């Protein structure tokens, strides 16, 4: 089944899921101690925002290599978030199970999207 090409980054399922993940990180990190405002809370949120932001930025890039570079940055931020989930759990800041599932879904979609860009003929 051939999908219609996305007209904007907002049409991309991977961006939609990454955006939802970023929103969830904001809600989750609201419960972190105030002492983490400039530490884990800030770092976690920046990394979470970086995922959909880099997907969006890469969307309009013309060449495969340029697109792939931004998607790779998004993947790096995704892995950074994976660590922050572990850290926040180990610090007893909450149960990140739902966020972990969402992150896994975004990871799979991002990997598939990156592969499709790299393997495309254009």
Describe this entry's structure for a reader.
- The chain has 122 residues and is an all-alpha fold.
Mean residue pLDDT: 94
| Poorly predicted runs | none
Number of E strands: 0
Give Rg in angstroms: 15 Å
Shape, principal axes of CA atoms: elongated
Decide which structural class fits the backbone.
Answer: mainly alpha
Strand content: under 5%
Task: Calculate the terminal CA-CA distance, rounded to whole Å.
Answer: 19 Å
Biggest sheet record? none
Q: SSE order in H/E notation?
A: HHHH
Q: So how many helices? A: 4
- Share of helix, binned: over 70%
In short:
By secondary structure, the chain is mainly α. Helices cover 70% and strands 0% of the residues.
SSE layout:
Blueprint: H1 13-29, H2 40-59, H3 64-90, H4 97-118
Give short descriptive properties of this protein.
single chain; about 0% strand; mainly alpha; about 120 residues
């Amino acid at each position: 089944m051939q999908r219609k090409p996305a007209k904007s980054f907002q049409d991309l399922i991977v961006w939609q899921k990454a955006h939802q993940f970023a929103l969830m990180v904001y809600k989750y990190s609201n419960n972190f101690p105030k002492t983490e405002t400039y530490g884990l809370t800030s770092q976690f949120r920046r990394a979470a925002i970086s995922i959909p932001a880099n997907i969006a930025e890469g969307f309009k890039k013309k060449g495969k290599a340029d697109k792939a570079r931004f998607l790779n940055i998004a993947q790096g931020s995704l892995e950074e978030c994976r660590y922050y989930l572990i850290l926040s759990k180990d610090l007893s800041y909450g149960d990140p199970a739902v966020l972990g599932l969402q992150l896994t879904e975004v990871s799979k979609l991002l990997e598939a999207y990156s592969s499709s860009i790299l393997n495309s003929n254009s």
